[in-house]
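Notes on consecutive records. When two proteins share a document, each keeps its own sequence and its own token line. Never mix them. Below: protein one.
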Amino acid sequence: MLALEVISAFLVAVAMSLALAHALEFPGKLRLDERTYMAVQTIYYPGFTLGGIGEPLAAIATFILLLVGHDRGADFWLLLIAFAAIVAMQAIFWLITQPTNKHWLKNQPMGRAGAKFFAVDQTQPSSHPDDLNWIRLRNRWEYSHLARAVLSGIGFIALIIGIAM
């Protein structure tokens, strides 16, 4: 049980660290012009893509921890909050962040794994023509990461307190 708790905490910490890194860049990136911003965006791949593998694993590990080792007391509810926060992070990524990533990276040369991950659908992130405006896409991407950072913090704190109980 201790091993599962440590693995869960580690994976949630990895997910939180990536989300917090993006959130901490937010003020500086808002000062960039379009050309510089678009050049900077390419630095995240493949590193953040590889690190992002920890996020679904964090959800799985937290769910298993929730099922196998805790009664229906306060620790159960804290682990449920942690699990819900990690799942919500995933939902924001797949529904908001990833479509923007795919739009921006459609002409970026990548390795086979990166091309497979980002080339699932080359459509625009939304049907609204205004969303092609880089500021709208930038804001969509940046604010999605702020929300993910908040959720990861909630998930991490709930998990650690739930484990400690």
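Protein two starts on the next line and is unrelated to protein one.
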Amino acid sequence: MTNVCTAEGCNRERGYGRRLYCEMHYYRVRRHGDPCVLMDRHKPEVKYRAAHARVRASSGPATLYRCVDCGCQAQHWSYKHTDPAELVSETGQPYSMDPSHYEPRCAACHALFDGTGANQYAR
């Protein structure tokens, strides 16, 4: 028995213990179930959480502002649903990569805005 990774075309040394693969292929199997999966490190799309982080980075926390609907202290950055290049998250939430398409809202107004369909008039 050789001490070489069993993944096709790999000549690296196997990992510690009774592993069949080198470290790279071992972790690919653990994460994806396949030692030959290649990850796309250059994802063209900013994900939902990262888009919200951009808004906080450019405008600060929403708590520094008043809610655009009721004037109370805001708690969330709320997507206005006005971006023509709107994206949709894996869980079905629309969002924008552009921080200018967000407004500060209190939790109650944010839920009302997103939950009643009132936001559809802005599209």
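For the record: The radius of gyration is 23 Å.
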